[in-house]
Task: structure prediction
Amino acid sequence: MNTSLYVVSTPIGNLKDITYRAVEILNNVDIIFAENPRHSNILLSAYNIKKELIAYNDYNYQRKIPLALDLAKKGKKIALITDAGTPTIQDPGYRIVKTFIESGFKVEPIPGPSAIICALQASGISTDKFIFLGFLPKSGSKQSKLLLKYDRDATIIIYESPNRLKETLKNIQQTLGNRYVVIARELTKVYEEFIRGYIEDVIKIIEEKKIIGEFVVLIEKNV
Ligand code: SAM
Result:
């Protein structure tokens, strides 16, 4: 069976973090479905990839999945990319992948960066077992419930936005105690930074300087 949908990982910051295979696939497909075509154009121009781009996101997937299926039925090859990293990881994409599989089309992954693994691999925290909780709920009590539910013998990984980071860290401290954490900031970008320490100290650090950008938070298991 020929592949109809390629799920292609793209960089999470540094444009060089793309595989030869990803570039080849993006050059060879007929159409690229992208979370934000304007954003993806920066990457595609850097690699001189000239393809038709169709916006596919959480707001339009109900219209865009039938369109993608229609194209696949006509024999067109489609690539799915997101703004950063691996499609479907806290990104739109899961629904189109599921629909293609259920419709009998072959779906192929083209592996590459994801902020989860990138943060983990240089964190210095145990990687034997880890649990990814995505973005935590906004409510403190819901956050605590979720953290307690998954606080097992494993590193916990979450994504967080700059305006909620301090609040979330305080809540993690209240819920799980003064754990060792790593904040992986702006991975693969110019201002990449790892802030490592016990939550109490890390909160002081981020209170002292304005922290902006994108973050992954890793929480060491209770040792
Ligand atoms: N699909 C992406 C992946 O594979 O990692 C994740 C997309 S999710 C919508 C965006 C979140 O991922 C950001 O809010 C941040 O928590 C994390 N993230 C993405 N790029 C990052 C980077 N360069 N440095 C740190 N965190 C990043």
In short: The mean pLDDT is 96. The longest strand covers residues 3-8. The pocket of S-adenosylmethionine is lined by residues 12-13, 82, 84-86, 89-91, 114-116, 159-161, 184, 186-189, 214-216 (CB under 6 Å). The beta strands are 3-8, 31-34, 52-55, 78-81, 106-110, 130-135, 155-160, 180-185, 193-198, 215-219.
